[in-house]
Amino acid sequence: MTQSTKGAALVTGASTGIGAVYADRLAKRGHDLILVARNTERLEALAARLRAETGVAVDVLTADLTNRADLNRVEQRLASDPAITVLVNNAGLALNGGLLDSTPAELEQLIALNITAPTLLAAAAGRAFVTRKAGVIINIASVLAFAPEMFDGVYSGSKAYVLNLTQGLAASVKDAGVRVQAVLPGATRTEIWERSGKDVDAFPAEWVMEVGPLVDAALVGLDKGETVTIPPLADEGQFTTFNDARLAMQPFLSRRDVAARYLA
Ligand SMILES: NC(=O)c1ccc[n+]([C@@H]2O[C@H](COP(=O)([O-])OP(=O)(O)OC[C@H]3O[C@@H](n4cnc5c(N)ncnc54)[C@H](OP(=O)(O)O)[C@@H]3O)[C@@H](O)[C@H]2O)c1
Questions:
Q1: pLDDT tens column, 228-239
Q2: 156 CB under 6 A from ligand 1?
Q3: pLDDT digit string (tens) for 56-82?
Q4: How many CB atoms within 10 Å of residue 162?
Q5: What's the mean pLDDT in 201-216?
Q6: Which of 156, 173, 185, 254 is the most exposed place for a label (fewest CB within 10 A)?
Q7: Mutational pocket test of ligand 1: of 12, 18, 75, the residue with most ligand atoms within 8 Å of the beta carbon
Q8: Is the pLDDT of residue 9 over 80?
Q9: Dist CA 224 CA 11 (whole Å)
Q10: Three-point CA angle 240, 129, 250, nearest 5°
């Protein structure tokens, strides 16, 4: 592909929903694109539109990220293509049911897409970006990382993992010039709801964000240098208080002595 001065963004789950809007916004910011998902037809249609509207170069990389050979091809692209400056780890799925209602295959599918894939892709991109001392990794988590009681514990747990991974990686690569951001959407109107047998319109209308404003807000958070961006949370102080309390515990979490309340 011809090279944009901003480099290329590799977006997973780019065929629809949040990933498709990231592709649109990053193209409009001047990034070339590498679009990843299973549905080649939808990826090609988006690629054609974005080439025509923005003039950026767009590659389509069809991959099922729950298939290890396909995942390895995407890892290889991240490791070997020096034009890539941005990874958007967005592809994800929710369950039609909770832990106790889902089959082992369904649970493994969620873990493969929501945990294994973003982990291996962040590792491949992170190593390349640290070597080049530049790059941005955006991981799409969820507000359910903070609210396991509101969902099923499996999807929410996968998103808590993504948040934890992001915070750990962000701290370890910040001195190497690499940025890592977790984006925590609330309910957002995309196909993920019908794909997992749910009706997003069953929620009160004021709970559901449209996908355009969600991605635009997430990019404002990125530009502000945030590690954790929560577009629907009106009172930033609620997150700051929560995060400060978490950080304040850290010096006390590993000790030789058992806490007095546990002494028999
Ligand atoms: N919508 C919400 O309310 C909400 C809230 C919080 C967090 N999120 C998170 O936001 C991210 C995007 O979700 P969305 O709402 O935009 O969902 P979506 O509309 O269902 O889109 C999911 C995207 O992932 C791709 N995908 C699904 N399975 C895949 C696989 N095995 N391999 C490769 N790509 C696959 C889909 O494309 P193909 O079918 O073509 O593969 C599609 O492009 C997810 O991580 C989700 O958990 C969403």
A1: 999 999 999 999
A2: no
A3: 999 999 999 999 999 999 999 999 999
A4: 25
A5: 97
A6: 254
A7: 18
A8: yes
A9: 21
A10: 30
